[in-house]
Amino acid sequence: MSLHRRAATRRKVVLMAVAAALLLVWVFPLIWAVIVSFKSESDVLAYPPTVFFEPIGRNYEDALFGDFSILDSLATSAIVSVSTTVLTIVLAVPAAYAFARLKLPAKKSIGFYTLATQMVPPVGLVIPYFLILNKVSMLDTYTGMIIVYLTFSLPFAIWLMVSYMEDIPFEMEEAAFLDKATRWQTLWHIIIPQVRGGIAVTVIFVFLNAWNEFLFAVQLGGNTVRPVTVAMYNFVSVEQTLWAKLSAAALIAMLPVVIIGIAAQKQIVKGLTIGAVKGGGRR
Amino acid sequence: MSKGRVNLKGIYKRFGNFVALKHIDLDIKPVEFFALLGPSGSGKTTTLRMLAGLEPPDEGVFAVDGEDVTYAPPGKRDIAMVFQNYALYPHMTVRDNIAFPLKMDKVPAAEIEPAVVRAAERVHIEHLLHRRPGQLSGGQQQRCALARAIVRQPKLFLLDEPLSNLDAQLRLQTRVELKKLQRSLNVTSIYVTHDQEEAMTLADRMAVFLDGEILQVGTPDEVFNRPRTIAVASFIGSPPMNLLPAKLDGRRLVVDGHVTELPFAPDHPGGDVTMGIRPSHVRIDPDGLPTRLYLSENLGESVLLNLYLGEYLVKVRVASFASAGDDETVPISFEPDAIHLFDTTSGLRIRTAQD
Ligand SMILES: Nc1ncnc2c1ncn2[C@@H]1O[C@H](COP(=O)(O)OP(=O)(O)OP(=O)(O)O)[C@@H](O)[C@H]1O
Ligand SMILES: [Mg+2]
Predict the structure, then answer these.
(1) Are A205 and A84 in the same domain?
(2) B209 touching chain A per CB within 8 A
(3) Residue B331 and residue B291: Cα distance in Å, rounded?
(4) Are residues A26 and A47 in the same domain?
(5) Given the CA of residue B39, which atom of ligand 1 is nearest to it?
(6) C-alpha dist (Å) from residue A149 to A126, A143, A206
(7) Domain hosting residue A82, numbered range
């Protein structure tokens, strides 16, 4: 009995140690960035690194209000991410419902397409997208960028949500039909409230993916649409890299991600496991 | 003003190659409590779903009060249904569950709450209105589903084995309440069950289903006392009646050499027939047919003997029985006026004394 307990304690200690080590590996760059963001540019490059220094807030001021202010690009990121998320949900919920419920003739092949979009390496799509957007004069426009993001987020969102909707028994809906609810009322009053968790997971993943996206933003964006992931590179130039300001900007850009991460921990873990099982959730 | 007359004519339903319903004809009268009785897989639920509009038939016509609603969508039929698994909305309180049909029917908000309370009171769950279905016992969930169905006045009330998820005691109690409720509602009700006792006690009339066909329609009394075919006879009663090959010659019925003089003249030219007799109408009779005792089951109020007459198993219900051990010889005879006769080839009943 006590032997048992001692083994359990040992297990716990080992687990904690491993977790701590892993966490350190992941968090170290972040801590480093935080430290750097409070140093002056000259201190950053000093060797050996200065351990004791006067922390300064100038870098944040510069990142937000300086010559290369990221304020506008933060707004751009917000517009693109929020629009993508809202549109994704508005379109994916009914689509997922249709997939889960209706006897669609092309259901299988559409399902496969959905999965395939999650498999194609994004790099392979950048050039075609560039050419297409160029052709329709949508390069560097919000519409163009959001449409491109939707091509990824929609299949993923539908895929994720179908699994939630399939869990709802048919009878529930049939009862609603007999209670004189229309299809849309059934979706609204019966289905959606029961997949709230799934919608939350989808919102979080779609938003984070859009907010963190870099590859497409840098190729298909420009002066009008320059999300913060791209704008940060203003601090990197041929002559010099302003590490401290870059760190400050990066940390500001990370803030929404961190806040969402903390607020929605549970949903994210759930989504990750479903994503892992279903092979979705990456980009 | 009578409403809720149901007519089914020539209904067929196929699932792929499988024919789930074969030529179903039914006339259900207004305000009747009508049971669909049959073994598992006989097509009772399919019939009910067809009535509800959830599963349109391949052929045939379904009319309510003379109006053809065969292909009308469920919401246009003014039909309420209690599902076997209740299908309560788990994210809503009991109050909202019961109120849902009214809201969808655009009943003014002020009228909803009193109607909900009234419906809840009828099934004694008015104290549970704030709970969610997940916080209710099986019996309470069943009542909630009932309340949701009766909160508006539908033309037709469909119940799919509503008692099957309850334990035996609660089932008996709820059965009584259900009957009372249906009487007070004055709504035509169609009740699916595979439990014949339930059908017998609840229904005004019933239809016996087997393999997608209706074998007989009648009052419980008719179905029990005058089964129309051998198939019905072998299904109704627990245990069902004994069916034995016999020879008919005028009024003389010969079973395995033993002659029973019938108190009536059967409407049949004579020859090979099938005799049916319920276990409680077989007597132990020293002058009767010798049978071999296989097993006696003590049911408390009576004893059920399993006897072998040659290769045929005969079940006999007696008040008490002192066994001298298995394989003992038990002589039996049949109560002449309780005998049912069937034409062996057609399976149809031959008119007898009770008819
Ligand atoms: N959607 C379907 N697809 C294929 N076959 C079906 C479908 N629904 C029902 N069936 C078949 O039709 C037959 C009748 O089914 P039904 O559900 O009506 O039986 P039931 O009398 O209600 O039985 P139970 O007492 O077990 O509920 C069964 O053999 C069943 O397998
Ligand atoms: Mg059934």
Answers:
(1) yes
(2) no
(3) 6
(4) yes
(5) 25
(6) 12, 10, 9
(7) 67-276
For tokens 């005998």, the residue is B339
Instruction: Going residue by residue through chain A, which has 283 residues, state the pLDDT in tens, using 9 for 90 and above.
Output: 566 778 888 899 999 999 999 999 988 988 888 888 888 887 888 778 777 777 888 888 888 888 788 889 999 999 999 999 999 999 999 999 988 887 777 777 777 877 787 788 888 889 999 999 999 999 999 999 999 999 989 988 988 888 889 888 888 999 999 999 999 999 999 999 999 888 988 998 899 999 999 999 998 988 889 999 998 888 887 788 888 888 989 999 999 988 988 888 877 777 666 655 544 333 3
Q: Does a structural domain hold residue A140? A: yes
> Do A207 and A84 fall within a single domain?
yes
C-beta neighbour count of B161 within 10 angstroms:
19
Q: Would an 8 Å CB–CB cutoff place B348 in contact with chain A?
A: no
Contact between chains at B81 and A178 (C-beta distance less than 8 A):
yes
Enter the DSSP assignment of A120. Answer: S
**Whether residue A92 sits in one domain with residue A220:** yes
Alpha-carbon torsion (A106, A109, A115, A117), positive or negative: negative
SS3 B272: strand
Q: Domains plus CATH for chain B?
A: 6-231 (3.40.50.300), 237-342 (2.40.50.140)
Neighbours of ion ligand 2 (CB under 5 A): B 45
Report the complex ipTM. 0.84
Query: pLDDT per residue over B240-253, tens digit each?
Result: 999 999 999 988 99
Using CA atoms, how far apart are residues A19 and B20, in angstroms rounded to an integer? 59
First to last CA, chain B: 34
Closest CA to B203 of B175, B225, B231, B228: B175
- The ligand minimizing its distance to the Cα of B39 is 1
Closest Cα in chain A to B156: A178
Can you list the positions of beta strands (E) in B252-301? 252-255, 258-261, 271-277, 282-298
What distance, in Å, lies between the first and last C-alpha atoms of chain A? 48
Last residue of a domain, one of A59, A80, A101: A59
User: CB–CB of A169 and B85 under 8 A?
Assistant: yes
Phi and psi angles of residue B213, each rounded to the nearest 5 degrees, phi first: -125, 155
> Looking at the CA of B13, which ligand is closest?
1
The two tokens of residue A191 are 């289905």
- Which of B179-205 are b and which e, b meaning 16 or more Cβ less than 10 Å from the residue's Cβ? eebbeebebbbbbbbbbbebbbebbeb
Nearest CA to ligand 1 atom 2: B15
Contact B73 A177 (CB under 8 A): yes
Minimal Cα–Cα distance from A176 to chain B, Å? 8
- In sequence order, the 6+-apart residues with CB closer than 8 A to the CB of B147 are B94, B98, B116, B119, B120, B122, B123, B125
